[in-house]
Specification:
71% of the residues lie in helices and 5% in strands. It is mostly helical and 346 residues long. The chain has one domain (4-304).
Length: 346
């Protein structure tokens, strides 16, 4: 379905250069980000109560290496769909396959190029490492670009970003079932995807970008618009609720414990929130097309859910979300925290 070489070359060709840094500055940034990750780890662990089951690598990367890492994860996501298409005998051959895979590869490359200039960091739960699954990626040029744009203290900003990403690492390595639950949802999406009736070329090519954004927590509507059966809508709602919880929880953690290691946390939050709503008209259109507007809602709605539940039943009561996958909030419960409290706590 996808020519991965075309995706990679397209992303690298379209990606903007990062901020101008000397070799010495690059080394300093890399060293400080690694240190910031270590500094953030213990406060996050103490505040969340989530104890990582195994170590995971922290990689400070540039934009091209972020592209390579994410295309590798996307290939993992696409493999089951490719297998299903082949098993159904619907795989194109010859010229249609070559042209179609290159077009889809170029489309994916363009999406990754756009995201690669904006993502500050991410925890990749799909990566399989020697010590266990998962790795944390910190995108150095993007972090430097934003801290300069906001005119904030670089050390504080780097620690602030690491608090958010370390929370994601705690969520996936400290909750034993979280990664398997996410993979199960991906499997459900694959199972619910119809590959008959000539739909493969038209529907799956359109669905791929939306599937990627759903898994990354960057869309909450587009996939539902593309896939109409009830089972698929249920999976989308479940993933949206999960991603809203994870992103909102990470935002709450970074703000509530930020004062411990980030003296200017209030200033950074104020400026960063203002930046989220800014941008050129073209940038705003692209953000909507790529799910960024929905992503911003996941941060704010998820954080509001975490705070409302904690106020109602305390931190121990909120921690019930980590006890079992059946306790995860649905998309509707994110918007109505009291309904989650009533379901889980009675």
């Amino acid at each position: 379905m996808i020519d991965w070489n075309v995706a990679r070359s397209t992303a690298r060709r379209l990606m903007r250069p990062g901020p101008d840094l000397t070799d010495a500055q690059v080394r300093d940034v890399v060293a400080e980000l690694r240190a910031a990750s270590r500094v953030a780890e213990e406060p996050v662990r103490e505040f969340t109560g989530l104890e990582p089951a195994h170590p995971t690598p922290v990689l400070v990367v540039d934009r091209p290496n972020w592209v390579d890492a994410n295309l590798a994860s996307f290939a993992v996501l696409m493999a089951p769909i490719d297998e299903k298409i082949a098993a159904a005998g619907k795989e194109p051959t010859g010229l249609p396959r070559a042209v179609g895979s290159r077009v889809t590869g170029a489309e994916l490359g363009a999406i990754v190029a756009f995201l690669g200039g904006r993502v500050l960091g991410q925890f990749d739960p799909l990566f399989e490492g020697a010590d266990g699954p998962g790795r944390l990626l910190l995108v150095a040029p993007n972090i430097v670009h934003v801290e300069r744009e906001l005119d904030v203290d670089p050390t504080d900003f780097r620690r602030w970003v690491c608090l958010h990403e370390e929370t994601h690492r705690a969520q996936f390595t400290g909750v034993p079932w979280m990664r398997d639950h996410l993979l199960a949802k991906i499997d459900e999406m694959v199972d619910a995807t119809e590959v008959g009736g000539g739909q493969v070329a038209d529907t799956l090519a359109q669905a791929l970008p939306e599937l990627v954004r759903i898994v990354r927590g960057q869309s909450d509507k587009s996939l539902s618009d593309l896939f109409q059966n009830e089972r698929q809508r249920e999976v989308v709602d479940s993933l949206t609720g999960l991603m809203s919880l994870l992103e909102g929880h990470a935002d709450v953690v970074m703000d509530d414990i930020g004062h411990r290691i980030v003296p200017s946390v209030a200033e950074i939050r104020r400026k960063f929130t203002r930046r989220r709503g800014s941008g050129s008209s073209l940038s705003k259109v692209l953000r909507r097309l790529l799910g960024y507007e929905a992503k911003m809602r996941q941060y704010s709605e998820g954080a509001a859910f975490v705070r409302a539940v904690t106020e109602r039943v305390g931190r121990d009561g909120f921690d019930a979300v980590w006890a079992d996958s059946t306790n995860l909030p649905t998309r509707a419960e994110i918007a109505d925290p009291q309904s989650w409290v009533a379901r889980v706590h009675g």
